[in-house]
Write a structure and sequence with these properties.
Shape: globular
Enzyme class: hydrolase
Protein name: M18 family aminopeptidase
InterPro entries: Peptidase_M18, Peptidase_M18_dom2
Strand content: 25-35%
Order of helices and strands: HHEEEHEEEEEEHEEEHEHHEEEHEHEEEH
GO molecular function: aminopeptidase activity
Helix content: 25-40%
Largest sheet: 9 strands, mixed
Number of strands: 20
Structural class: alpha/beta
EC number: 3.4.11.-
Mean pLDDT: 96
Length: 429
């Protein structure tokens, strides 16, 4: 399928701007503001209007954007919801990270989520996230930082010193992973480094109090392949779904109720104030439809598409898939099915998704995990159970899930955006 590269170039910019969930939410907020969405602070009283476009955040790492229906009440319209998550597996900087060994300055890291560790070696790494600090007026403040250049690396041990390296060596997360930042005669003061970084960004800092910082790969997202059929980047799982949902929401031009929710903490179970198993979405719905009976009626007229990438069949490891359910890249988004409710898909919601795909001329594939393998999960079953909305789990097929460099098909991205737009325009779900 020949596609204009403009949306893909926009996607690449978004991926590069979003090394952490905090940066992803900031980038999404900027795009929403440019599209006429109004920010509503959870601390304030809200006054939403018919046809209004709004968004809110929690913790700076989870975001919900929505539009109110123009001609019907929200109870009669319901919401067409797309859900995704902002976090990705990574290496987080520990609270007291400084290490000084053999003249090398290193930082201790903690593994966040189910990281595929081997690809983190020998990459050009930087640090980004949020820092909380006391400003020069003695007040608590916080700011996003991004060193935005390679400042660290985790070097591999030479094959000459580990002849079994290619025979399945286990990676010890405590001892193998501390990145090297430089050489010095004494242990570095990491908080002093953060203070300098904040001050260079224009902040008046008295003391760095705490932080949530992650290492990330500085290599840009890119289109690859002889015909640029593939997108490669860090954090495709699941910033790709965030971007597709956001783009569809902004461009759907629907008179119906539309909603995009992108939660943090999916990779570690979703149980937090900002995760899908927390109350953020439920609190928003309670504010929009106050009466419990009306809210139940609204949800009965709603549907959610839980969007989280799917495992494409790898040509070198095809035996890891059920032979009849091996999705191919660039052959359409994937409906994810599991009899034990690891995915929330039903026959009704999957049929609705197929009709939407047919309407925009897109193909659809199916994924069912091998019966002798464990199945992962998504925010779909959690959100469906929390608020009682019918749900389907879908995703763009990808390779190298949870690696520092993941891969997906460009046609699948464009097709999924069109399906989401058609979904947002549906009169009845």
């Amino acid at each position: 399928m020949n596609q204009s590269n403009a949306p893909l170039e926009s996607l690449i910019r978004f991926l590069n701007e979003s090394p952490t969930p905090f940066h992803a939410v900031a980038a999404m907020s900027t795009r929403l503001e440019s599209a006429g969405f109004e920010y509503l602070n959870e601390r304030d009283t809200w006054n939403v209007k018919a046809g209004g476009r709004y968004y809110t955040q929690r913790n700076g790492s989870s975001i919900i954007a929505w539009t109110m229906p123009t001609t019907r009440s929200l109870v009669d319209s319901g919401f067409r919801m797309v859900g995704a998550h902002t976090d990705s597996p990574c290496l987080r900087v520990k609270p007291n990270p400084e290490m000084h060994r053999h003249g090398y300055s290193q930082l201790g890291v903690e593994v966040y989520g189910g990281v595929l560790l081997a690809p983190w070696f020998d990459r050009d790494l930087s640090i980004a996230g949020r820092v909380s600090f006391k400003n020069t007026e003695g007040e608590l403040d916080a700011a996003l930082i991004n060193f935005d250049k390679p400042i660290a690396i985790i070097p591999s041990l030479a094959i000459h010193l580990d002849r079994e390296a290619n025979s399945g060596r286990a990676i010890n997360a405590q001892t193998f992973l501390p990145p090297i930042l430089g050489q010095s005669d004494k242990k570095a003061d990491f908080r002093a480094l953060l203070k300098t970084q904040l001050e260079e960004g224009g902040h008046s800092v008295s003391e760095v109090l705490n932080y949530e910082l992650s290492f990330y790969d500085t290599q840009s997202a890119a289109l690859i392949g002889l015909d640029e059929a593939f997108l490669v980047s860090a954090r495709l799982d699941n910033l790709l779904s965030c971007y597709m949902g956001l783009t569809a929401l902004i461009n759907a031009n629907s008179d119906e109720g539309m909603l995009l929710v992108c939660n943090d903490h999916e990779e570690v179970g979703s149980m937090s104030a900002v995760g899908a198993q927390g109350p953020m979405l439920e609190h928003l719905l309670e504010r929009l439809v106050v009466k419990s009976e009306d809210r139940s009626r609204m949800l009965a007229r709603s549907m959610m598409i839980s969007a989280d990438n799917a495992h494409g069949i790898h040509p070198n490891f095809a035996d890891k898939h059920d032979a009849n359910h091996g999705p191919l890249l660039n052959k359409g988004p994937v409906i994810k099915i599991n009899a034990n409710q690891r995915y929330a898909t039903t026959d009704v919601t999957s049929s609705q998704f197929r009709l939407l795909a047919q309407a925009v001329g897109a193909n659809v594939q199916e994924f069912v995990v091998r019966s002798d393998m464990a199945c992962g999960s998504t925010i779909g079953p959690i959100t469906s159970a929390e608020i009682g909305v019918k749900t389907i789990d879908i995703g763009v097929p990808q390779f190298a899930m949870h690696s520092i460099r993941e891969m997906a098909g460009t046609s699948d991205v464009m097709d999924t955006i069109e399906i989401f737009k058609a979904f947002y325009r549906l009169e009845n779900v």
